[in-house]
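WARN retry 2 of 3 for item q-0093 after timeout on previous attempt; input resubmitted unchanged.
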Amino acid sequence: MTQEDLQKLQGEITAASAFLRPLKAEMSRIVSGQHKLIDRLLAALIADGHVLLEGLPGLAKTLAVKTLAKALDGKFSRIQFTPDLLPADVIGTNIYNPAEHTFTVKQGPVFANIVLADEINRAPAKVQSALLECMQERQATISGTTCKMPEPFLVLATQNPIEQEGTYPLPEAQIDRFLFKLRVDYPTREEERLIAENNAHPEFFPQAMTVASLADITAARKMVDKIYMDQKLLEYILDIVFATRPKHHAELSERQQNTKLSGLIPLIQYGASPRATIALVLASKALAFMEGRAYVTPQDVKDIAHDVLRHRIMLSYEAEAENVSADDLITKILEELKTP
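OK item q-0093 returned
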């Protein structure tokens, strides 16, 4: 790409990303704090991915997703997952019309632009699989009738990290289908003071206004594909992913061969899949777009690496015994690898 082409693309990116500033401002007006959650929700929406959110109750997960849908004038749906839920409760079923003696398809709550799958690990495997099929295939088959998901389509699935009784943990192969896994922590004291002031009078609680459209998201996705990524950055992303695979360290690029990554070998049972490479490329481009840039920087890759990789690395028993987390390993990899 020539300098002239890059300058032309920069102008297009600046114009296409203009809707993000009022959108983030509107979401921040309703949702106090949680700036990273807002940024990652927008990044996932632009990169056409889904989010797995791990956080304690009462941290504005539902409010953030509902506000995003309202600000985009999109359809919002919330599904509370429970052990007695059936796949038909998610994707829908056939309804019999006795007057006409016919069956008609009744679409379930998953057919929305933004879906909150609350406590997904409380539902049995069949229900989880029904939702994950919708996420991956962007369609659902109801009694032989194939129904397409609306566009855009974002699923935010939550799971409670402190309650494991009566739950059905998502298998690693299914977790891999999420673009991000986010961890949400408590707000700061000042943020919580603002939350208390806003919610002290529920009748005066601010309502989100529509400040952007679903068409803006569709246009943004097309522009993200055009964002320039240097070949050296792609090699850097490959090095990060291959560093999570102990048996493939020999395939690291030449400039990374002398890094001290051998200490990670006994700590990782399985590394990140090729989906991680694709996710890092897409998410890095989405971050560059959100910053109004026509090119990806190494910092974009570093900023998004933990959210993309933490759920794609399976730790060994030795790592658990040493109280080493996936985030610790990712940090170590980023510190050891040479930045292009």
